[in-house]
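TICKET: design request
STATUS: open
ATTACHED STRUCTURE:
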């Protein structure tokens, strides 16, 4: 029996049924693929504003490990003893400042991390592309239009994992392929937040006072030695920066019902929502230079390999494949243990919206 001829005959006899069968098979294949991918990860562009601003796809904090109902562990409630300048944790978990967080009895608690220790623990985990420690210092900023106010000086990677370009407002003459110039360190370039600091025209100068950073060792409740960063506000170093642009991180929008009432436009008007954080972005190399200049009482060993040794309260990771990020996050949690909060950034956003 020639099955090929029978198939051709059947197709000619019932072309409509054949098309339906092919379409049904294609839809079934698509469903199988989606059911396979979606539980393991997220679409490529999900939470892009937050991933861009935090600088990665997975965020690691030195506390707030996820608690599973299946775990048989004694839990205690601890106060969060951090500061807003140290990390983005208050954006993703805003309740922690008032309510504290649950952790296992033996957890070390909030403290500074040494990046190389984290990198060493997760080095064998697949799908991790790059590691980025968060670098920031609190400061006081003085501008011609807004006077003096508290802010955060942040060292920002000149080639970030996710482009800042869609969120920038800068001079037309500025090189569109990069937001800092090649002489950015010598010129003391900075990018400011339009939403928080108001419109500061490119070419303006802002004046920043930075307290002296201190690194101190403490003994945690379980007897471990931990690192903490403090600031000496009685000893200020002053710098002036050239503003080369502004940024606005639009994260969401809501319907403006009042403005939409009576409007003939079928599309409702919306109100944009922004991540309002007073970060002044400067090149990471310039931040390292300033941190060393202002840290007379910090062990010089912390500056021998700044990116991997200097303490931080937040580390972000990029991944090769967002569809596998759930598994990657799970493996990182297992490698680091209960003393770290590890979250895919889209996952962390669920707490922000709840």
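STATUS: resolved
RESOLUTION: sequence designed for all positions
ATTACHED SEQUENCE:
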């Amino acid at each position: 029996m020639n099955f090929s001829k029978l198939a051709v005959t059947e197709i000619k006899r019932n072309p409509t049924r054949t098309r339906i069968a092919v379409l049904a098979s294609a839809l079934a294949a698509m469903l199988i693929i989606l059911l396979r991918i979606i539980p393991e990860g997220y679409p490529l562009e999900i939470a892009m504003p937050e991933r861009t601003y935090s600088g990665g796809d997975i965020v690691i904090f030195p506390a707030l490990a996820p608690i599973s109902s299946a775990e048989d562990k004694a839990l205690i409630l601890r106060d969060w003893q951090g500061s807003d300048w140290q990390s983005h944790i208050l954006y993703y978990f805003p309740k922690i400042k008032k309510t504290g967080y649950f952790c296992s009895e033996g957890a070390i608690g909030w403290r500074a991390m040494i990046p190389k220790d984290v990198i060493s623990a997760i080095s064998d985990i697949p799908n991790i592309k790059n590691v980025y420690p968060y670098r920031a210092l609190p400061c006081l900023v003085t501008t011609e239009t807004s006077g003096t106010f508290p802010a955060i000086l942040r060292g920002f990677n000149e080639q970030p994992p996710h482009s800042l370009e869609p969120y920038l407002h800068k001079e037309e003459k500025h090189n569109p392929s990069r937001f800092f110039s090649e002489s950015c360190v010598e010129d003391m370039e900075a990018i400011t937040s339009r939403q928080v600091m108001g419109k500061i025209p490119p070419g303006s100068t802002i004046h920043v006072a930075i307290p002296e950073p201190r690194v101190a060792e403490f003994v945690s409740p379980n007897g471990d030695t931990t690192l903490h960063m403090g600031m000496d506000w009685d000893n200020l170093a002053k710098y002036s920066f050239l503003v080369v642009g502004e940024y606005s991180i639009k994260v969401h929008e809501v319907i403006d019902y009042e403005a939409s009432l009576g409007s003939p436009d079928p599309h409702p008007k919306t109100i944009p929502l922004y991540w309002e954080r007073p970060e002044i972005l400067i090149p990471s190399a310039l931040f390292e230079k300033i941190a060393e200049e202002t840290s007379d009482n910090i062990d010089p060993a912390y500056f021998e390999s700044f990116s991997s040794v200097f303490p931080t309260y937040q580390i972000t990771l990029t991944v090769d494949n967002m569809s596998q990020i759930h598994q990657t996050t799970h493996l990182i949690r297992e490698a680091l243990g209960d003393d770290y909060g590890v979250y895919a950034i889209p996952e962390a956003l669920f707490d922000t919206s709840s």
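CLOSING REMARK: The chain has a mean pLDDT of 87. The CA atoms of residues 187 and 206 lie 13 Å apart.
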